[in-house]
Amino acid sequence: MNKKIVIAGSRSGVGKTTLALGLMAALKKQGLKVQPFKVGPDYIDPGFHTLICGRNSYNLDSYFLGAAGVRRTFLQNSQQADISLVEGVMGLFDGKGKDSVSSTAEIAKTIKAPVILVIDARKVAQSAAAVVYGYKNYDPDLNLKGVIINNVSSPHHFKLLKEAVEAKMSDLKILGYLPKNQDLELPERHLGLVPVTESRELEIYIQKLTELMEEYIDLEGIIEISESDDLIEIDSAADFSSGFKDKIKKAKIKIAVALDQAFNFYYQANLELLKAAGAEIIEISPLNDSQLPEVDAAYFGGGFPESFLEELALNKEFKNDLKEKISEGLPIYAECGGLMYLSSQVKDFEGNIYQMLDLIPAEIEMTSKLQEMGYREIEASADNLLLNKGEKARGHVFHYSKISKIEANVKRKYSYRKIREGYSTLENILASYVHLHFASNPEMVNNFLLKALAYQKSGV
C-alpha cells in the first residue's frame, strides 16, 4: 500500500506549514519513515522538513520539472519511506498564470495523492462549511479527503464547525483542530544551520508542536486517508541525468558548496544532479573556514548573509584565498546571497557597510521592502558558465536586497522580462539573483562541470 498525503491550505497564512511540520514530527515519533516534499519553488520550508524528518526534502514543481519530472522526483524519493507528506503552496488552487501551473491541486493530481485541507476558523462558525464546500466542489477530479481546522476558540466552537461541514459533506473526514493562541512562532533563520541547527529553541518548538498534534489531531485518521492504491509510473523521458557526458563522470570533479549559517538555500535536485554527473560535493563555510580546499569549482547559494555580514567581512583569510583561486581560473557560480558575497560591499538595514569579495564591482543595499518575487525564465544573451547563447532555463527570485550601484563594465549574460542578469567580470564567474533549477535545463550541469574539468586539467 502506497501511503501519501498532501497538506493544502485554503489560502496563505492559515497554518499549513505549522500543520505540515507538526505532522512530520508526530508521525516520525511514531516510528514511521516520513519522506517530505514541498510544492513549488520554495527553498526555506524544505530546510525545516529535512531537519524534522532526517531525510532530504524535494520540490515538486511542474514549472521546473514538467508533470513527468514531478512524478519521477516523487517516486524516486518516496519508495523507501513509510509515508510521503507533501506540503502545499499558497492556496489550494493558486499557481502560475491562468492555468495555475504547479498549484497544490495540480501536483496532488499529478502524483495521485489524497488532500487534507487546512482552514482558518477565526471569526467564523457554520460559514466554514461553505468555504470547505467550495474547495471540495471546485475541481471534481481532486481527491479532497479531509479537513483540519486551525485557530479554534473552544471545544464548542470545534463542534459547531465539525457538524456544519459534515452535514454538507459526509464523505469528508474532520481530522481535528488546533486551538488559537498557541504561540507557535516558527524560530526564524534556523533552517540552514546544518547540523548546528539542532538549537534548543527549535527543539522546544518541535516538541510543543508534536504534543499539540498528538492531543488535537487524528493521526490514525490521517494515516488511513494516506493509504492509496493509485499508482503512478515513471516516464523515462523525465530522466534529467541521462545526458551527462562520460568524460565528466570519469574526471572525479570536486565542487565546493557553501553550506553554513549564512548560505543554505539550495534546491536539493541541483546538488543531486551534480552528483549524478559524477561530481563530489565538498561542503565549505565562508564563515568558519580559513581557506578553500582543493576543488575544481565553487557554488554559492542563497541564505542569510545579511545576518552575518561582519563575520563574512572579517574572515579575510578565506576571502583572500578564494579570490586568488578565482583569479587563477577557478569557476564560481553564485545565487542571490552568493551574489551579495561576490559584490564589492553590502549596506545593512542600519546603514553599516561591510566589504565583501569585490569580484562583481557592485554595491548591495538591504531594504525593508521585498524587491522581487516569482518564477523566472531566463535566456542567455551570451555564452556563460552555465548556458550557451540562446539557451533557456527556469528559476525563482525572492530578495529584499538591491543593487544600488554597479560598474558599467560588468557583463550581463542573461535576461528575463527585459531585466539583465547573470553578472560576470571574468569568464569563470557568474552571479545572479535568480535561483536556477538545474532540472529545467540539465545542460547547465554539463556546462558547469566542463568548465570545472578545464580548470582541473590546467593544473593550477
TrEMBL record:
Species the sequence originates in: Halanaerobium saccharolyticum
Catalytic residues of the enzyme: 336 (nucleophile)
Record's keyword annotation contains Magnesium: yes
Domain CobQ/CobB/MinD/ParA nucleotide binding: 5-191
Name of this protein: Cobyrinate a,c-diamide synthase
One of the record's GO molecular function terms: ATP binding
Pfam families (UniProt xref): CbiA, GATase_3
Keyword Nucleotide-binding: yes
Miscellaneous field: The a and c carboxylates of cobyrinate are activated for nucleophilic attack via formation of a phosphorylated intermediate by ATP. CbiA catalyzes first the amidation of the c-carboxylate, and then that of the a-carboxylate.
Obligatory cofactor(s): Mg(2+)
Biological process, per Gene Ontology: cobalamin biosynthetic process
